[in-house]
Amino acid sequence: MGAELEWMVTRDADPAEVVPVAELSALVDPAMLLGGSRFTLEPGGQVELSSAAAHNLTALCRDLTHDVDHLVDVLGSAGLSLVPAATDPHRAPVRQLRTSRYDAMAAYFDTLPHDLGRVMMCSTAAVQLNLDAGADAAEIARRWRLLHLLGPPLVAAFANSPLRAGRPTGWKSTRQAVWQGMEPRRTHAPVGADPAAAWADMALAAPVMMLRTAVGPWRTVPGFTFGEWLEGRADGVARPTVDDLVYHLSTLFPPVRPRGWFEVRYLDAQATPWWPVPVAVLATALDRPELHEGLQEVCEPLSGAWLVAARWGPADRVLAATATAVFDAVTPQIDDGRLRALVDAYRDRYLARRRCPADDRLEEGT
């Protein structure tokens, strides 16, 4: 298993100021991340720590905690702080990184009838979890289904993005609303019980975002789906190679993305004390086959309710009850006592009161 933690960064003296990526790069020495994490920057200046692969939950959270603490200390020494939310509460989106991929992606999103692509690239942050897909086709299908069924109640439980650019949005998870509304053929969950077939169908039906070129700007919005390209229906363009397919898959952003493992992308970024909670709950749920049938049964009535979860969080009675049931089933199975206590504390602070971190953000204005 592995985890990727993203945060936006603000300057303590002026949270509305954009922090240059050059300053962030100069501050963080990757050699000092002794937990083995990789440090990268996202287009809007979000920082990201990607853990090393771990054999168990305790090792993952121990090593990643070491590197998170180091990152917080280094930023703090420069008067900078991690934003404790999953959308930027202070600033409009500003893209800082210029690469062929990001330039083409931004140009593609600018052709859509909204600004959600720009917001996604520059003003959102997540907790992403990478989990073993399974040992055989039956287990892979079961784990795939469970991860999707857990999505809405856990989106609600960990909703942490009610503000953007200085204003409340009316959503508990604005980040999830952005992803769901951005481009359905690219960001909605693949449809079908067979993960391989569902993923293939999504890949074929999705528009090609960009065509890479050896020199000059990449071609944006070529005007055909990957399926049309594969069938030779893309005028003046040679049929795609396997490498073209691999790259096309990297431009699809469903809630759970299969990559030889399952990359879970639907969780809002959390304030630093709480990020191990979604990691522990989701990893433990997937790692205990004896829980799967019961979890599927309790989550089934909310299948596909991504936007309801994003809008209301645990303020919705059914979502609160379902998320609580997930926590109650999973928490006793967490072997690490410290993590188990942290999950219990989160449940008591939020779910027991039908709250989520978004309610803190609204009260604090951050």
What features would you describe in this structure?
It is globular and about 60 Å long. A hairpin with a 7-residue loop joins β9 (about 210) and β10. Helix content is about 45%, strand content about 10%. The protein has helices at about 20-25, 55-75, 100-110, 115-125, 135-155, 175-180, 185, 195-205, 225-230, 240-250, 275-285, 290-300, 305-310, 315-330, 335-350, 355-365; strands spanning about 1-5, 10, 40, 45-50, 80, 125-130, 165, 165-170, 210, 220, 255-260, 260-270. The chain has 16 helices and 12 strands. With about 375 residues, the protein is α+β, with helices and mostly antiparallel strands. The strands form 4 sheets. It has a 6-stranded antiparallel sheet with strand order 3-4-1-6-12-11, covered by helices on one side. Strands 2-5 form a two-stranded antiparallel ribbon. A two-stranded antiparallel ribbon has the order 7-8. α4 (about 115-125) crosses α6 (about 175-180), α5 (about 135-155) packs across α12 (about 290-300) and α12 runs antiparallel to α14. It has 2 domains: about 1-195 and about 250-365, Creatine Kinase, Chain A, domain 2; about 205-250, no CATH class.
